[in-house]
Structure formats: C-alpha cells, structure tokens
Design goal:
It is globular and about 65 Å long. It has a domain at 3-181 and 288-341. 72% of the residues lie in helices and 4% in strands. The protein is built from 16 helices and four strands. With 413 residues, the protein is mainly alpha-helical. Strands 1-2-4-3 form a four-stranded mixed beta sheet, sandwiched between helices.
Length: 413
C-alpha cells in the first residue's frame, strides 16, 4: 500500500464520517422542532404540514446515510478493490487501439456505475416520494427516461471522449489546455442546445397561454430589459408533485420555464415575484460568474491532472497497474469529489449569497410580500423543512434557511 493509497483512504473515511455526523445532527435538530411551527410561519403553515415536512426531511436524510455508505463502498470497489483494473483488462483484451479502447472503457464504466446506483434512485422515487405523495412517475416512464439518458450518454459522450483522449495523446505536454478548451466549448454547446433539443426529449413544453399571468410576466420582462425566446409551461406533474421555475439557455436560446405544478399553487402576483427572483440571477450576473468559476476550476483541475497523468503512484495508489490516459481521466473524475469535499461549504455560502441578492432584486421589481407568500407556499407544497440544522445547512444548502430568507425579505416589504 503506497502513500497515496493511505491518503485516499484516510480522506475518504473522513468524508464519510463527516457526512454521517452532519446527517445525524440534521435528523436530531429537525425532530427536536417537529412539533413547533416557527413563529414567523404560524399563520401560513399548519402543524400538520410542518410535521410532514419534518418527516419527509428525516426520511430523505436517513436514507441519505445509507447512500453515503453505499457510495463509499462502490468507490472503494472501483478503485483499490480492482473494479476499474478488471474492466481495463477486459477492454485491452479486445485488441483495439488505445483511443477506441479508452472510449469503450469509459462509456462502459459510466453505464455500470449508473446501473449500480439505480437501486437507490428507485427507492427514493417509488418508496420515499410515494410515501409522502410526491411521486407521479410510472415505472414505464421511469424506464423510458433511463433508456433515453443512456442513449444520450452514447450520442454525446462518445465523440467527446474520443476527442478528449486524442487530445491527451497527440497535443504534447499542454494537452490539458486543449482539453479545457474542448470541455468549455462542449459546456457552452450544451447550454445552447438544452432548451430546444435536449429538454423536449424528456418533457413536453407548451407556450403559456394568453392570460393575466402572461401579461404580467411580459410586463416584467419588458421593464427589466430581459429578452427570451418564450414563456413555457413544462409538464412536471407527469413525474412529481414538486413545483419549480427556472431560466435555461443563453443568448438567443434563453427561455422562461414554469412547472405546471407551480402554476397550480401560486397566484398571478406570486408567480411574477418568483420570476423576478430568477431574473435577479441574470441581472446580478450570477449565471456568468458561476460559469466563469466552474470553467476556472475545470482548468485548475485539468492542470493538476496534467501532472498526475505522469505519476505511476497515482494509478497504483488507486488500484490500476497499467497507466493510460483513459485510466487517469476516469480515476480523476471518480476521486476528485473526495479531495474537494471540504470546499463544499464555501461554494454553498456563495450560492446562498446569490440567493439573497436575487431576492433583493425581486423585491425591487415586485412586491416583496408576494415573494414571501410564494416562498411560504413552495416550502409547504414541497415539504421543505423550516428548521434545518444550522451546520448541516451551512455545509450543503444552496439556499438560505427559510427563516433567514423570509426575515431578509420582511425588511424590504
């Protein structure tokens, strides 16, 4: 066992223990506040709804601990357990060239990983979501989605992996710069193609009909100077009772999307306020900033990989005896989250800061009271806990806790 193996196992153990400890804190805190609705919400949230949200959160968190342990075991089996080594030997035994072998190795690894994680997805969807009345997807549609995702992996992943491995082998010591350019271009292409080419494969999008809501939305878009290719309603109710709204795409492909479930629960002014919040992310340049941060971290990560790919201990330490570009890339993608796990609170903090700014923008453009009303309804309909453990929330949550978010908006109403 080399030093890198010891480092990896030690860090992996620390990550798992931290995840389990945070989950324990979260469960204990939510249960301790299960029977008392926070004072700020007592007029809008009943004790029954508050308890449902607590039970829903606890159920997900408890199963999340099982997922943490299961995911850790799978990672160990794939790496030091020899899973990737076995798969690599199988593909090398076919006798194709390095690039074809590497592409087949990576695609098959991703498919197998997805299949091994399928039981947890099935339990989340058909047990927990069913128990709390949120699941609406039928087994046939679930299977169809799975098949479509696998086909997309093949259609989009095959040329990307082929190009990546070719660049790693043919462009010299600075291959990681060229690979970063490829990845950046692919990311931007996906952002452009997703609204009109990819998303419709899974969901039906219809233009929001001409009514008071549409007129209010059009007025908001005009006075904020936001241009989009349309306002659409997505059939989210085919799969889940949860509601949401989002922007997607960039440039001329930007579009506004509302889940049909969200429109069922909110009034016209509340919908306008929710949209104004999403607009705030664009107007405060959060989307561009996040994109730059993501691409910057990708460049840094690939620079590190550019060094690791030449280090025999990197492969040996993670269970592979034969160095190769495809092995290095796959190992880096698998173990990277372990080495960056403790940076997560920093990213969560940045995301929560952006949410406050987007809320502030919405309060400037619409009635802050309507946004508060909409958020409370969404917390209720989505069974989001109002009393998360503060440390758990600080570590993971991309959105501020409900009480803090409402208090921030109350000062503006």
């Amino acid at each position: 066992m080399n030093a890198f193996t010891i480092l990896f196992l030690s860090l992996l153990g620390a990550v798992l223990l931290t995840e389990l400890w945070l989950a324990h804190r979260h469960i204990r805190h939510v249960l301790a506040h299960r029977d008392t609705v926070p004072k700020a919400f007592r007029k809008q949230i009943s004790i029954e709804d508050h308890r449902k949200a607590a039970d829903y959160t606890v159920a997900h968190t408890r199963f999340g601990r099982i997922e943490n342990v299961y995911g850790t075991v799978l990672l160990l089996l794939w790496t030091v357990g020899g899973g990737l080594e076995w798969l690599d030997r199988a593909w090398n035994g076919i006798g194709r060239g390095q690039i074809v072998t590497g592409t087949g190795f990576m695609l098959s690894a991703f498919v197998l990983m997805g299949l091994l994680e399928l039981p947890t997805s099935l339990y989340q969807t058909f047990v927990i979501e069913n128990r709390f009345g949120f699941n609406r997807i039928k087994p046939g549609l679930f299977l169809a989605d799975l098949v479509k995702k696998t086909l997309l992996l093949g259609i989009l992943g095959t040329p990307l992996i082929l190009a990546a491995l070719w660049l790693m082998q043919q462009t010299g010591a600075l291959w990681w710069v060229y690979l970063w350019l490829l990845w950046s271009g692919f990311t931007l292409l996906l952002m452009w193609a997703y609204p009109s080419l990819i998303a419709p494969i899974f969901n039906k999008f219809t233009a929001l009909e001409e009514n008071a809501v549409r007129q209010r939305i059009q007025s908001l878009l005009e006075r904020t100077g936001f241009r989009s290719r349309g306002i659409f309603v997505m059939d989210g109710s085919r799969r889940s009772a949860h509601g949401n709204a989002y922007f997607t795409g960039f440039g001329k492909t930007k579009r506004v999307v509302f889940f049909d479930t969200l429109l069922q629960h909110l009034g016209d002014k509340e919908i306008e306020a929710v949209l104004a919040h999403e607009l705030g992310h664009f107007k405060r340049r959060h989307v561009i900033k996040r994109m730059i941060l993501t691409l910057g971290m990708s460049l840094l990560g690939l620079a590190v990989l550019g060094w690791l790919v030449t280090q025999p201990w990197f492969y040996a330490g993670l269970g592979m005896t034969q160095p190769s570009t495809h092995a290095a890339l796959t190992l880096f993608m698998l173990v990277g989250p372990v080495f960056t796990f403790f940076l997560q609170p920093l990213f969560a903090w940045g995301s929560r800061r952006d949410e406050y700014e987007a809320d502030g923008y919405a309060a400037e453009q619409t009635d802050a009271g309507e946004l508060i009303s909409a958020l409370v309804k969404l917390y209720k309909e989505n069974a989001s806990t109002l009393t998360p453990d503060p440390l758990h929330s600080a570590f993971y949550d991309s959105h501020p806790p409900a009480a803090l978010r409402i208090a921030h908006l109350t000062g503006r109403s």
